[in-house]
């Protein structure tokens, strides 16, 4: 069975900075529903590769859903094959194979007040949230945006324009490493301390996200108002034949002895599970899952169009919320302790722990 991916045409490639390009896709009317998204979500892109056939990468949508546009923004990274290929080769009229939007770095209520942190190209999902909140919501938006230097600020002009248009509701604080050095945890905490009732979203390099996360925890931001997005690089091939992907995944799993949050090798419960699933307004019920395969594969066998991207426990595209019972995970490189405490689990890694299980994909 082939995974469901789609070939879309590139209508525009925009040079945002010397190192960053935005890529706009044309989504035909018959795929509009499949490619509907919420601000903060990402697309999984297949970049052609001489060595491996293709390289799969997740790139956040920098456009906002209400614009009707599907735009990702990609920044070169040193030795980053896919980002360099996109920046060097992609042009209007080309086509790329994509998986539909996914991800859980999304606001539940666009009318909330938002405290946003973007580091470098981490601005990509953050500007989608900011623009949506300003144009469709009613709350205030504060953005702390850190960059290496002035020339590396992506969307500088648009942010200035939004600040002018929404002067009463939008504040941007630019932080330039070339001028101020790296932002410190204490400095970030002082900044955030003025906005402790806001809902926080953070995306950027790992040290930046760690500093922001610590600052917000110190200020006792509750879990439901603290969100962070991790950049992911996919080792497997979510575009290929499922059997091939599973074989590659097994090899990767053997090589990976990481001891991450909430992981388990074997199901603790081996009998048939009474399973209820809520997905896109539909209810499914099964009574014959024995944990011989992970939950995502079981649902696929049953014909359920469950979301996924990496199949490796790296991206959270397949995340569900456990409403009743529990699910162990073979590998988890994306959910933290708080996510687990909220009942979030990765179905691509999910094995049964209880004889009844009720999950929802609707968050
Ligand atoms: S599909 Fe990426 S974590 Fe499950």
TrEMBL record:
GO molecular-function annotation terms?
A: 2 iron, 2 sulfur cluster binding; flavin adenine dinucleotide binding; metal ion binding; oxidoreductase activity
Does this entry carry the keyword Membrane?
Answer: no
- For the 2Fe-2S ferredoxin-type domain, which residue ranges apply? 273-363
User: Is Metal-binding there in the keyword field?
Assistant: yes
Q: Which prosthetic group or cofactor does it need? A: FAD
Going by the entry's taxonomy, the superkingdom of the source organism is recorded as Bacteria
The UniProt keywords, alphabetically, are: 2Fe-2S, FAD, Flavoprotein, Iron, Iron-sulfur, Metal-binding, Oxidoreductase
Q: Which InterPro entries match?
A: 2Fe-2S_ferredoxin-like_sf, 2Fe-2S_ferredoxin-type, 2Fe2S_fd_BS, Beta-grasp_dom_sf, Cbr1-like_FAD-bd_dom, FAD-bd_FR_type, Flavoprot_Pyr_Nucl_cyt_Rdtase, FNR_nucleotide-bd
Using the record's annotation, list all stretches that form the FAD-binding FR-type domain.
3-108
A Pfam family (short name) is Fer2
- Name it: Ferredoxin--NADP reductase
Species of the source: Nocardioides marmorisolisilvae
């Amino acid at each position: 069975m082939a995974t469901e991916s789609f070939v879309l045409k590139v209508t525009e490639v925009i040079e945002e900075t010397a190192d960053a390009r935005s890529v706009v896709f044309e989504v035909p009317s018959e795929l509009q529903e499949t490619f509907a998204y919420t601000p903060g979500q990402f697309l999984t892109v297949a970049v052609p590769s001489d060595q491996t056939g293709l390289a799969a990468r997740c790139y956040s949508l920098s456009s906002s859903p209400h614009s009707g546009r599907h735009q990702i923004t990609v920044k070169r990274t040193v030795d980053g094959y896919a980002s360099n290929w996109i920046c060097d080769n992609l042009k209007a009229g080309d086509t790329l194979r994509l998986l539909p939007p996914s991800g859980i770095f999304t606001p539940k209520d666009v009318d909330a007040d938002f405290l946003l942190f973007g580091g470098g190209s981490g601005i990509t999902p953050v500007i989608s949230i900011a623009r949506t909140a300003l144009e469709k919501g009613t709350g205030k938006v504060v953005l702390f945006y850190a960059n290496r230097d002035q020339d590396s600020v992506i969307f500088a002009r648009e942010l200035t324009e939004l600040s002018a248009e929404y002067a009463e509701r939008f504040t941007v604080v630019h932080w330039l490493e070339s001028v101020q050095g790296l932002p410190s945890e204490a400095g970030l905490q002082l900044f955030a301390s003025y906005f402790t009732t806001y809902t926080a979203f953070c995306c950027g390099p790992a040290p930046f996200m760690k500093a922001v996360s610590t600052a917000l925890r110190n200020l006792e931001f509750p879990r439901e108002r603290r969100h962070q997005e991790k950049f992911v690089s996919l080792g497997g091939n979510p575009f290929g034949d499922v059997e091939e992907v599973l074989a590659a995944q097994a090899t990767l799993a053997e090589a990976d002895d990481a001891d991450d949050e909430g992981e388990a090798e074997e199901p603790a419960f081996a009998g048939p599970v009474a399973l209820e699933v809520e997905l896109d307004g539909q209810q499914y019920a099964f009574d014959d899952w024995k944990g011989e395969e992970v939950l995502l594969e079981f649902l696929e066998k049953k014909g359920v169009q469950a979301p996924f991207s990496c199949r490796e426990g790296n991206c959270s595209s397949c995340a569900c919320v456990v409403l009743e019972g529990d699910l162990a995970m073979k590998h988890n490189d994306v959910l933290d302790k708080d996510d687990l405490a909220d009942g979030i689990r990765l179905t691509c890694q999910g094995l049964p722990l209880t004889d009844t299980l009720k999950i929802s994909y609707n968050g």
